[in-house]
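Progress narrative, work stream C.
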Amino acid sequence: MLTFGAAMILHPVLGSAVVSQQGQTATDFFAALIAAGRSLSIVGAGEFSPRTGGARLFFLFNSVVGTAIISLTLTYLMQVYNSLKQRNALGMTLHLMTMRTGDAAELVAGLGPDGQFSTGYGHLIQLANQMTEVEESHHFYPVLLYFRFHDPFYSVSEFAFVALDALSLTETALSEEKFHWLKHSAAVAALWQST
């Protein structure tokens, strides 16, 4: 769109304010598109040269805007990619913690083998941190919801369901007397709220 808009501005001045450095200047709209497109990323437009002060300022302005837009777009795409990778890592982590079953009971059992949740508590903290980061990524980049993968454990609905199911099992299936500290811990609260 930037190229097309710049071409509409350059088209009427081709051959007068903007000329070709090699031979006769083409004055068709395609030549204006070429000059505009090249001036978006560099100051100047290849074989086209601005001859007036206004044309020079336009080429400078066009290159600054073009470079900024291209940089912002590439940065945005890289951030989306990193957030998507982070989301997929969380989905894979939860899937592996359920022994590849997707069953939250397996997750809870794995966090507290033989009823010892002291080491599993550290994993809950990590899961809460990862879930919070994924939640914030979706606030910053809502486009992430449109990325789908073949394996269901990568989907937000799947890993959120597993996490909420595991937290519900923690609240209901574990003894209040023995696991009061776990049920009312900051890690469980953070994981619940972020999920």
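Work stream C, second folded protein:
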Amino acid sequence: MRDDRARTGPFKRLPVLHCGEELIPETTVIAQFLHRELGDAGALNASDNRRHDTLLSICNSDLLVPIGMLLWAEMLMAGIDLPKFAHATLARRSRTLDVIDEALGEWNWVAGFRKRPVTLADCFLWDELDKQRVVFGPRFSLDGKPTLAAFYEEHPGRETFESLLAAHPCQLTGRPGEAAAIENIQGFVADAEAA
């Protein structure tokens, strides 16, 4: 499928969004397109739109991409020390979540989404946090991250998201053997904690 540019776009990569006659490649470009098309951009002022774009960008680059790399590491990087890589990814994730928590606290994000319609950025962040929960299992924690903890627990779409995910379980990536890889990762980070 990747070699078919009519389906995968100019760079032959996924994800790609087909919307009518338009083909929109790349996660951040898709997110920005949907932010406008869903009406989020028109409902927010310029400052809040920049914050949403910033949040979408950091979720993609610092949460989504590292989880994908971790899940595919064994298959893509021969000889990698996967336990060490898993532990390093978990540590980086924790620092990233600290930074996101601080920014969202300064932006009064949780109070904001209680007053405004849910935006794509809200959904994207919740999904990325939930992926962290799935991959890191018991090591997933939002302790010491009060804004993110409130966001994750109080998200207006949480019940719907959880219901849909329970009814339609799916892989996080297309990696063969993903469930076993996640189990291994959870074992590696649990072993590192016990050591």
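The first strand starts at residue 16 and ends at 19. No further action is required on this item.
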